[in-house]
Amino acid sequence: MKLAILSTHPIQYNAPLFQLLAAEKKVEPLVFYSWGSGGSGDKYDPDFGRKIEWDIPLLEGYAYRFVKNTAKSPGTHHFNGIINPTLIEEIEQWKPDAILVFGWNFRSHLACLRHFHGKILVLFRGDSTLIDEPSGLRKWLRRPFLRWVYKHIDYALYVGVQNKRYFIKHGLSEDQLIFAPHAIDNNRFEGPDQEYLLRAKALKEKLGIGEGDMVVLFAGKLEPKKNPLFLLDLAREIDDPSLRFLIVGNGILEDRVRKEASDDPRILFLDFQNQRQMPVVYRLCSLFMLPSNGPGETWGLAVNEAMACERPVMVSDKAGCAADLVVTNWNGLLFGADDRATCVRFLKELLADRSRLEAMGVHSKRIIRDYSFRKIADALDTIADKIRK
C-alpha cells in the first residue's frame, strides 16, 4: 500500500512510526509536511516560552517532502496557518493507494479530506475526546459540523477509549474505527537501564535528593491545563521531610510556581529537558504525576514515557490517557481533577509502605508495552490487507 501521510511538521512522537513503516516495506510511506521547511529545526514554542529543537533524528529513515506553505502567518496555532496551493497536486502525482491525515483543523488538511474522499482510501488520525466538550449552544452548533468533517474519512485510527467515544458520537461506525494507540519509543525509554540509573544517581546528588526520599515528578509545560500548582497544594498538606516534588519544564506559570514554592526546600526545579535526557529524568522519581484539569489534555504522552521507565503514575481523569493506562492501586492512581484528599491519602500510604512503588512500576511497564509503534503499524497493515482483497 502506497500511503501518503499528511502532517504539519516533524514530531518526535511520529518519526519512529514513519521509520518503522519504511523499514518493514509492507506499507510504503511518503510524508508530506504541510508547514513547509519552516516547520523543521528549532521553533519557538509559546507554551514552553522558548525555542525548541529536539535532539533525536526526526527526518531519517523514511521519505518525506516539505510542501510550500503560503500562509501569511505560518504555524499550527490557527486554521489559516497551513495553506499549500500545490499539496493536492503533489500527492496525486505520487499516486498513493491511501492517505493518512493527521488533524483536520488546518485549511489544507481539511481540503485534502474533501478532495480525496471517494477517490482513494482516506484515513484519519486525531486524539480529540468528549472530556471537556463545550456545553450549551456551542456544542450543538459544533457537533453537526464535526459530523460533516468525519463523513469524508473511511477509517479513523483511534488512540484510546475516550477518543473512540468521540468518533462514535460524531457519526463514525464501529467498523470504521481501528485501534492504533498513542505511543512513544518504549525501547529508548526502557534502556540502557543501568546507564540511565547511574546518570540519575549523579543528578540526584547534584539536586540534593537523598536515597531515602520519595520523589513525585511533574514533567511538561508549566501551563494551566496541566495544573502544576496542584503539586504545591499536596506539598502543603503533607509535611513529611522525605517527600520531595520535582517540577521539570518551563511555561507561562513558571514564575508563579517558583514563587509559591520558594519557602519549601522539598520542591525542586529543572528547566526543559530534551528527549535524550528524559529517560534519566524519569529515573529521578519514585512516581510520576499528571494532575491536568483541562481543557484540552487529549492524552498526556509523558505518562507513556514514565511507565516505560517502570514508574507508577498518578493521573487525573481530565487526561485522555487515564482511562486506558491507569488502574488505581495496580500501577498508580486515577483521581478526580479536584480530588486533592484522595491524592494526599495515596501519597501518605506510599510513604508508609514504599514496597508498593516497585510493584506498581512493574505493572506500568507491562501495560505500556501494548502501546507501541508496532501496534500502529499492525493497524495500517490491516488496512493494507483490506485494499489488497
Task: Please explain how this structure is put together.
There is one protein chain. 38% of the residues lie in helices and 17% in strands. Helix 1 (15-24) packs across helix 15 and helix 11 (301-308) packs across helix 14 (355-368). It has 15 helices and 15 strands. The strands form three sheets. It has a seven-stranded parallel beta sheet with strand order 5-2-1-6-7-8-9, sandwiched between helices. It is globular, with a radius of gyration of 22 Å. Strand 14 (313-316), helix 12 and strand 15 (332-335) form a beta-alpha-beta unit. The protein has helices spanning 15-24, 87-94, 107-116, 136-150, 161-169, 186-190, 193-207, 229-237, 254-261, 278-282, 301-308, 322-325, 340-352, 355-368, 373-388, and strands at 2-7, 28-33, 43-45, 50-52, 63-66, 98-102, 121-125, 155-158, 177-179, 214-219, 243-248, 267-270, 287-290, 313-316, 332-335. It has two domains: 2-183 and 372-388, Glycogen Phosphorylase B (Rossmann fold, 3-Layer(aba) Sandwich); 189-368, 3-Layer(aba) Sandwich (Rossmann fold). The protein has 389 residues and is α/β, with parallel strands linked by helices.
